[in-house]
């Protein structure tokens, strides 16, 4: 949500030009995936659902699931935030929640397919794996995604407010400049006849 404002005092309202940086978004997404994977592994270890003897396969599974769910969710949430925060500010969290449910479901099926394709998940364990991972994926996606979406939405609103304040300030400066020019023109129009009258009097004397 980076906006660049290009404006001048005499050029009217500033224009907002978003500058998306795909490379930074991808790096941020990868860092986010690693962070969420670490949280899931620690959570499973603390709950006793994972043991250190088979932690390698669990870390692989967590990383694949997080990759297929988190990256699409980030881009979809970012698009929804930019597209619907202004027109539908009260419904944007509903759109976020629906999008997170969709991306977590599709990502869960896609991740299981990839794990089955590479041989990490036997074919007979595909549906049990889906039934076991899908509810957790949905809940985790809603919690993490809505918190992140709330932060992004607040940041978007703050930037929009700052841009509006800057626009008003520039309009006020332009109005002040026009007022000063009008006063100067009025003063010049008053001085000119007196100067001409005094010059004629000097010549006549």
Label the overall shape: rod-shaped
- Biggest beta sheet summary: 2 strands, antiparallel
Helix amount: over 70%
Spans with pLDDT under 50 lasting ≥5 residues?
1-19
Number of strands: 2
Question: Given the helix and strand composition, which structural class is it?
Answer: mainly alpha
CA radius of gyration is 31 Å
What is the subunit organization of this protein?
A: single chain
Termini separation comes to: 74 Å
The sequence of SSEs as H and E is: EEHHHH
Strand numbers in spatial order across the main sheet: 1-2
Mean pLDDT over all positions: 76
Question: How many H/I helices?
Answer: 4
**Beta fraction of the residues?**
under 5%
Description of the structure:
The chain has 205 residues and is mainly alpha-helical. It is built from 4 helices and 2 strands, in the order ββαααα. The protein has helices at 22-47, 55-84, 92-117, 126-204, and strands at residues 3-6, 15-18. The protein has a two-stranded antiparallel sheet. Helix 2 packs parallel to helix 4 and helix 3 (92-117) packs across helix 4.
């Amino acid at each position: 949500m980076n906006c660049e404002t290009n404006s001048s005092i005499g050029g009217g309202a500033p224009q907002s030009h978003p500058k998306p940086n795909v490379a930074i978004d991808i790096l941020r997404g990868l860092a986010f995936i690693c962070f969420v994977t670490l949280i899931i592994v620690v959570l499973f270890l603390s709950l006793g659902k994972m043991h250190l003897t088979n932690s390698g396969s669990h870390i692989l599974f967590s990383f694949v699931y997080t990759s297929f769910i988190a990256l699409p969710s980030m881009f979809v949430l970012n698009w929804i935030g930019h597209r619907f925060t202004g027109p539908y500010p009260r419904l944007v969290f509903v759109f976020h929640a629906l999008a997170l449910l969709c991306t977590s479901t599709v990502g869960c099926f896609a991740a299981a397919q990839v794990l089955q394709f590479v041989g990490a998940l036997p074919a007979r364990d595909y549906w049990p794996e889906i039934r076991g991972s899908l509810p957790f994926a949905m809940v985790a996606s809603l919690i993490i995604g809505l918190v992140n979406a709330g932060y992004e939405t607040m940041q978007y609103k703050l930037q929009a407010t700052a841009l509006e304040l800057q626009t008003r300030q520039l309009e006020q400066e332009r109005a002040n400049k026009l007022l000063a020019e009008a006063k100067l023109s009025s003063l010049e129009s008053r001085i000119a006849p007196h100067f001409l009258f005094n010059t004629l009097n000097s010549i006549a004397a």
